């Protein structure tokens, strides 16, 4: 599904949710729950809290459906809400002012179960090894763009940074990863073949 079709589909879901359509809310939940759990886990490394955070964000969307005023597109709104709650969890649980820049080990895939696909596991490890060499905040920008498909403007809104800053991060990320071509290009082209399987095995 293209980005434009996704946005239109999400808009239609949101409009139906505002009218109390529970089936549309269930469709939204099914579409984003696992992806948001993975994103939250990437930020604060606690699977149980990731599930609670995402469930809470989605539940509040339903509870407050009659008063929703979302200025971002729905996908950006959800990722930003989960990011904020995940960082608040870190601050509370660690008793310090931890912020996104201080996160030092943001993983692409965090699966407690063994991956049955050797190829998937090898690709995942290679991607992690390359991306984890980047500064933490650049890792998140890179993954939001190249894996989640967010545009620079949307990433800026999610992370509360300027679009120009996002662009600078991506320029440096691409410059950095270019030294791994063609290896990195081959790995990234294979990503979509195993990512869905990895996601489906998480948070079940």
Automatic annotation (TrEMBL):
<feature type="domain" description="RNA polymerase sigma-70 region 2">
    <location>
        <begin position="28"/>
        <end position="92"/>
    </location>
</feature>
<keyword id="KW-0805">Transcription regulation</keyword>
<dbReference type="InterPro" id="IPR014284">
    <property type="entry name" value="RNA_pol_sigma-70_dom"/>
</dbReference>
<dbReference type="InterPro" id="IPR039425">
    <property type="entry name" value="RNA_pol_sigma-70-like"/>
</dbReference>
<keyword id="KW-0472">Membrane</keyword>
<dbReference type="InterPro" id="IPR013324">
    <property type="entry name" value="RNA_pol_sigma_r3/r4-like"/>
</dbReference>
<dbReference type="InterPro" id="IPR014327">
    <property type="entry name" value="RNA_pol_sigma70_bacteroid"/>
</dbReference>
<dbReference type="Pfam" id="PF08281">
    <property type="entry name" value="Sigma70_r4_2"/>
</dbReference>
<keyword id="KW-1133">Transmembrane helix</keyword>
<dbReference type="InterPro" id="IPR007627">
    <property type="entry name" value="RNA_pol_sigma70_r2"/>
</dbReference>
<dbReference type="InterPro" id="IPR036388">
    <property type="entry name" value="WH-like_DNA-bd_sf"/>
</dbReference>
<keyword id="KW-0804">Transcription</keyword>
<protein>
    <submittedName>
        <fullName>RNA polymerase sigma-70 factor</fullName>
    </submittedName>
</protein>
<keyword id="KW-0731">Sigma factor</keyword>
<dbReference type="Pfam" id="PF04542">
    <property type="entry name" value="Sigma70_r2"/>
</dbReference>
<comment type="similarity">
    <text>Belongs to the sigma-70 factor family. ECF subfamily.</text>
</comment>
<feature type="transmembrane region" description="Helical">
    <location>
        <begin position="184"/>
        <end position="203"/>
    </location>
</feature>
<dbReference type="InterPro" id="IPR013249">
    <property type="entry name" value="RNA_pol_sigma70_r4_t2"/>
</dbReference>
<feature type="domain" description="RNA polymerase sigma factor 70 region 4 type 2">
    <location>
        <begin position="124"/>
        <end position="173"/>
    </location>
</feature>
<keyword id="KW-0812">Transmembrane</keyword>
<dbReference type="InterPro" id="IPR013325">
    <property type="entry name" value="RNA_pol_sigma_r2"/>
</dbReference>
